[in-house]
Fold each of these.
Amino acid sequence: MKVSKAMEINDEGFLNQAGTTGRLDDHLYMHHMPYSYTAEQIRKLRTFLFHMQDKPIPRVIMITSALPGEGKSLIASNLAISIAKGDDQYVLLVECDLRKPSLSNLFKYPPSKGVSEIIQGNAKIEDCLIKTSINKLTILPAAKEPPANPSELLESKRMSSLIKELSERYNDRFLIIDTSPIQATVDPKIIADQVEAIIMVSRYRYTKEADFKMAMENLPKDKVVGTVLNALDELPAKKYKYRKYNYHKYY
Ligand SMILES: Nc1ncnc2c1ncn2[C@@H]1O[C@H](COP(=O)(O)OP(=O)(O)OP(=O)(O)O)[C@@H](O)[C@H]1O
Ligand SMILES: [Mg+2]
């Protein structure tokens, strides 16, 4: 294997393109403020996932929402950190939003090859994994260069095969998959077929019932295990509230 100067093999045996640099974004509450109310809500979400009645613990989990900007990436990232902080739990956070990737801003790594290059056949999975400064948390970024044809790429069979391959190859770790909004794109629906559980995010005073319902209609309902109400307009201390999926009561 050829290892260029910018790359080194990390502790887990993964190639690390450049690694994360600098202080992680303040929105990664689970990292910076693990005892805040928000972090506590994320921990509740983790606990719920680990103790669902009559269901095994889901290992391949997709985070999605109806509309743009509802907090999918933040919740996916904080949940990933929360699971990685548990004993013996390794996490691969996969960024499947090729249109508006945002994990590099949160985890502070330079634009790096990932899902887009892999499904185009221009990179190998193991060469794209980024080790974060958080122990046991690795990221597969979306793309180094935004692809010209994200829809074609994401709709292609190669996208579903990638998720399948990741879940088989890394079968000792949790896969948390950050996606684009359902209303704008078809990719979450394609990814949904390959996951074990789906968490829906909705934003307080922003997501309309019709949007939420339409999004739900496009997902396999039995896989939607919960919703997160992301209350952006609330006081900083009360930003997330987790509840079991039950949108009739919710609205
Ligand atoms: N609980 C929160 N507290 C403070 N800011 C938040 C919170 N949730 C989201 N935000 C901010 O709102 C914006 C959108 O969040 P995020 O990127 O996580 O949403 P998204 O659903 O992934 O958006 P997109 O559909 O564009 O991918 C970001 O600037 C983020 O920092
Ligand atoms: Mg996002």
Amino acid sequence: MLSLPTSQPNGVSHFRVGDLVVSAINDGIFEVTLDVMVNIDRSEAEKLQASAFRRMPPRITINAFLINDGKSLTLIDSGCGTIGGPAAGAVGRRLSALGVTASAITRVLVTHMHIDHVSGLVDGEGKPLFPGAEIVVHENEAKFWLGEMPSGASPALRDAFAIAQRGIGPYREQLRRVTGGEVAPGITLLPAPGHTPGHSAYAVQSAGESLLIWGDIVHMPGVQFANPAAGMAFDIDPAQAQATRRRIFDMAASERARVAGMHLDFPTFGHVARAGAGYAFVPEVWYPDV
Ligand SMILES: [Zn+2]
């Protein structure tokens, strides 16, 4: 069995899942306003932010994950790279601080093709940083973002297309387009559409333990656990995103699943509990490796 690394560089947190070591890697943050939220009154969102002791204006935490099974290294998402502003894009240097070179990464599993998930796959000139890795993405995600832009696309959607193609385009030849199932040893892709057409969660299982890395089911933990109806302005299908969030919250609460997410507060590992008409996030307790 792998032992947990004995040091955690700044912005990295290691957790054991069975025989695997899963490391949350913080990419940084986005500074936003509540204008990014839809399907919730501003006053209610403000109230929830305040009662969850959140900053105003809000910040959105950005994470990626590294999974070490002793034989291969799997990266899930890659952060913002060079185009997410000064407070984001730290995944590359945090991997270096861990002693992980890009060539050591066997595969990258992509939850979806937004800026904060695929832009870290390329350098400032758009050249691939992981030329030897297999890139796994849901078929519907590749079809949408690498296909033709919908007619009448907003400027924001046009930008999103350009960003998706910048991050994934150089990998067309090594892209593995899947619709579900096991994509790496012990790692299963679970479709979670709505935020984007092929948005996917990854279920990690090892030696009787599990972890659901759920991508962008939540962006604003202070608001969306309490009120799962609240969505984001950049959800491609807001109604489907809400239905998926409710389905996954319900499943996680019923199964007492351990979850992690790209926009949960670092180090992100925890559980979903029912609370009143909504839910609450309960952080996982960290113990030393004994
Ligand atoms: Zn995101």
